[in-house]
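Worked example (supplementary).
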Amino acid sequence: MRRLASFRSLVWCCVLVAASPAPPPSRPPGAEDGYDLWLRYRLVGDAGRLAEYRAALTHLVVEGDSPTLRAAHDELAHGLRGLLGADIPSADHVRGDGALIAGTPATSRLIAALPPPVADELTRAGDEGFVLRALRVQHRQAIVIAANRDIGVLYGAFALLRLIQTDSPLSDLPVVSAPQLRLRLLDHWDNLDGTVERGYAGPSLWDWAHLPDSIDPRYRDYARANASLGINGTVLTNVNADARVLAPDFLAKVAALAAVFRPYGLRVYLTARFSAPIELGGLATADPFDPAVSAWWRGKVDEIYHVVPDFGGFVVKANSEGQPGPQDYHRTHADGANLLADALRPYGGMVMWRAFVYANQVPTDRVRQAYDEFVPLDSRFRDNVLVQVKNGPLDFQPREPFHPLFGAMPRTPLMMEVQITKEYLGQDTHLAFLAPMWEEVLRADTYSHGAGSTVARQIRGLAGVANIGSDRDWCGSDFNQANWYAFGRLAWDDSLSSAAIADEWIRMTFSNDRHVVDPVKALMLASREAVVNYMTPLGLAHQMARGHHYGPGPWVSGGRADQTSVYFNRADSAGLGFDRTASGSNGVGQYFPPVRNRFASRDSVPETLLLWFHHVRWNERLRSGSTLWEELLRHYEAGVDTVRWMERTWDGLEGLVDAERFRRVQGFLRIQDVEARWWRDASVAYWESFSHLPLPPGYEAPAHPLDWYRLLRCPPDPRKPRCAVLGGARVPADK
Amino acid sequence: MRRLASFRSLVWCCVLVAASPAPPPSRPPGAEDGYDLWLRYRLVGDAGRLAEYRAALTHLVVEGDSPTLRAAHDELAHGLRGLLGADIPSADHVRGDGALIAGTPATSRLIAALPPPVADELTRAGDEGFVLRALRVQHRQAIVIAANRDIGVLYGAFALLRLIQTDSPLSDLPVVSAPQLRLRLLDHWDNLDGTVERGYAGPSLWDWAHLPDSIDPRYRDYARANASLGINGTVLTNVNADARVLAPDFLAKVAALAAVFRPYGLRVYLTARFSAPIELGGLATADPFDPAVSAWWRGKVDEIYHVVPDFGGFVVKANSEGQPGPQDYHRTHADGANLLADALRPYGGMVMWRAFVYANQVPTDRVRQAYDEFVPLDSRFRDNVLVQVKNGPLDFQPREPFHPLFGAMPRTPLMMEVQITKEYLGQDTHLAFLAPMWEEVLRADTYSHGAGSTVARQIRGLAGVANIGSDRDWCGSDFNQANWYAFGRLAWDDSLSSAAIADEWIRMTFSNDRHVVDPVKALMLASREAVVNYMTPLGLAHQMARGHHYGPGPWVSGGRADQTSVYFNRADSAGLGFDRTASGSNGVGQYFPPVRNRFASRDSVPETLLLWFHHVRWNERLRSGSTLWEELLRHYEAGVDTVRWMERTWDGLEGLVDAERFRRVQGFLRIQDVEARWWRDASVAYWESFSHLPLPPGYEAPAHPLDWYRLLRCPPDPRKPRCAVLGGARVPADK
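After joint prediction of all chains, the assembly is encoded as:
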């Protein structure tokens, strides 16, 4: 793999190219079904740029024959064929201006011979990064993709293709790029029965029934898409784990997937059910201190690495929402995590131990729990354990403050977990671009080590709960793809702005035409705040209907209190909001001093988090000069108005966006419009039953009385709840 | 729609062509993901034929502007572009040799002016048929697609494309083709929650959640595929019906689908839950004699036709397997059917009333029931009712005798219902081409009106339970597509042989290379008998595991007796088989005399149905000279051997079939190989526990003892049961 260009490697280059004729037209042309994601590689539209690219890229010199370099070669050949509208031939040497040279110093004579500045840049690129350079090689103008390891070459290939896809001048080179986070992972909450928990894009991508005999070609395209973003790990199974995935027949299936993903630098991880030694191993206990239990895990890990030599490790949800865990045996989370970590350590495997826990007793303040349980365990974890912390202390809400654990466990490596699938933000249909939310938390300053201790600096990895299923467009909607994209880009480089990410994605996905880019970008950047406004403005949280989490349910009560809406909204005749100051649960006390004080004071708390930290009287005047009641209504109204504006903006793109996607997005925005009003009206009607305050003049009154909203039920499809509000036709279903 | 070619129609022709450039390469070329079905339109491979076609088809003259004629034009333009590798321009007149002229006498001056022989042929073509002709028009050589109605033009367009796809000489024209059956329907057993009963190809194609706002482009491709076969109706919903599909919000969704299907001649039907007047209408009863009930149905039907003006009608499963029906009110099936028929009659709608019924009491012979219940009702049905009868009297088994109702209700129009989805024949993975099974029943002679009274002559329509889901390849496997194809072709023309259908399908789907066509055809034609042999040889039936119907379960007992295996196999120490002669249930008595006698006598009963009609001693000598025991083992062994031969045959096609489909089919055949042995071994081990006879020398002994097979459980994915036997790894799951 690491030897210099051989005759063999050149032979496969030629064979590959020769065997790749342009595909004959097979279905009505221009089908934009979303399958290609942001890797569409359509012909460059700007004639000047096209000429520039064609001159700069006349032949391809990829030296080396590893599966990863082959993937890089194939991607470049395939991508450039589409972008430049012609085959770019492969060659074994520089044969004139316009060579695109890719490789590592170990695989490529040409890369090894590059001048000293490149060597310096390569040092900065590290293990996974790459260098893109325009320079003269053998007295000819060339472009170079150089990296220290093969995977860096593949990442560099995707980066170069992205520059061309976005009409960027190649004069912007050199680029030196390296990821800040070592672990950039997708978490699939996919069950072995083919369902996906909180999945809104069809059944699981993993066709367990037919693996390993039958390999779906989508697996490779999935790996390509991840590699194009630098995502380097995938957790195949749900955190609510099924021990059977660790049985030999399932491990054979896992190994088949890992083999497809390996060339793309994508390591496979599994979720480990803590009680697996009982369920699979037939032991009487899963006590981490029992020698038979640790022996069982060691044997199981040996077995896994035998079939998946680059297995990444385990993700564990323990003692939370009914999952088994070490506390069942009066052991700590650290005891449990270390049990698995010791088994994985000889192979370099990792444990990601989730801090999302539920106590058996209902706490006075649910959001304090992870901090209270985990901070005392700091320094008790093995060094191959990461504690995985959600972005906020509750549960993937449209807005939460950052999680107080960030910075609070200085001797324990932390991961951050975000949710790409929009469980609480409108699921498949609502357009909500999540980069602004993630940017908000990554840049939040914890002050754990003084000013500048941003959340981004407190973590070693980023995990995103995937929004991917077997729907043709992967993600259930065209715009949901942008969240997969944004997650990967931010995991690679958290300094990227939401606007820059949106810009790239739109250009790659829709068009470089600024008449498309500008309005779509505006729409995307406004979208998350719109959802916050029509669902849970001013720091409200967890106000959705029970179970499906799709529609509004501020009235939800009964059952376990800390899973109800009324627990979180604390609405009463006096006012609204959860008092987390010292006079209340003192949740603010979990933050470092400057932040703590800022959140604790009515004078400095950000309005966006007001009701998260404070119980506020309905007619109390906020810093804006308006009362809470007025401000609340204003935000709901703004949410609905923004969706209407998004709809109009999109309507204006007819003819500029292909008809297929235009209509698909338009249909979904129509649904979102109806449902934003449903959220606003149901919420306002409910708050009104406490505040007894009138709606201000000009405010659009709820379309129905409160009881009408309370009686709405969801229609039958559990994958795509529409909650009886669809296209304006509203029927109380579930009868 | 019916006026002559206008300026407007010519304008859209030109616009359509101008707006359809060849698609740029967007993904690795040659992706054979199965989406295109048999409508792949790849470049003609034979240079001679290509030259012939290019000369014969130089321009396209489609006169008329109805949506259906537009669909015909688009399909021809799209198909010929692929097949001939060049755009075939549209024109408003014959401008030289090679015009392809399509239309009806009403829409096209050129068609109206064709010479008298064509007019005669058009008479024979009837309402839905078409004429393909090569002749001189305006002194130029032309090819004509002529029909009496627009839909015939579309069917003719597909027929012409099929001729080219199969490398047929155009000198074989003229073709006059008209369907024998008026109703050619797919029945989707799709539930409103997105699941599909007995579906093995992913979730339902109908995305109820997003309809009507969002229209999946697949709906159109679904309609195209059906139109290419002449299928003219689709029942959207499961016969185990949910009344909610008749509610206004769902009818709006149904209307949106109907609008997509309409240009393709595909009418929409729904299943009607008999108790809908109670569940939806709030009535106290669904008694067909209650005036409020008939008023409710009349109102509901008015409402349906208001949004779906060409609605086809209702399919009803009543008083069967727990479904409500007229017998709940002591009314007859005829009373129930007539209730709906009277509501539909003003609009020309039909009722298809299923004869698949279960009595509340366990009968002495389950397979007698439909005949016993329905024959007395002959002449009691309105003339817009069809009684829908399954091909055999039990339930879609690998082999059954034809249903004795065929020919036994001379005053009632009958439909035949077959199952395209392979509930009992290996579901998604096992390769089983079903045309031979359908050919067998269609050509079976009932003797109801003397010799020649074939089943095909006793029916007015054919309904097939669809095998279609939202899997990318539609049907869950490449070869399952052949069953959709074969169903449609036989519904159009029951004189087609299985071999001819396989030949067409292979050429359109894989290749015209005889090194592909010949072996694949041999494999397909052998495949159904292989399944019969390894699952239920010699007339055995219903020997599969409970519930999922996938793996073997000859030992299944308990619960309702007439749904168990032991009820049907009647295995005991003496022998095997169900005595349906006069000494037993006298099921033979339901057939007309010559057939009755043939089945009743041990000397004339076909060996393939031996154990269906007779209880035979284990060591009794059959007409072959072997004992039952020997013959039984020989058939199981032949089933397994045939699968192995199919595997080897397919392996020999490497390089001749694209790698993607080659590997997919190979993987499934590997699964089938393991599972054929599982079926054989489990069955033989079970029979052995009664016969206590030794295995003959050379016979491959079961791999495991009987208890091992009895303990096998199915893994979690309910859509794709694999029953713990996959790729050789066998684990008792479901623990």
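Two points are worth noting when inspecting this output. Chain B touches chain A through 76 residues (CB under 8 Å). The two ends of chain B are 63 Å apart (CA to CA).
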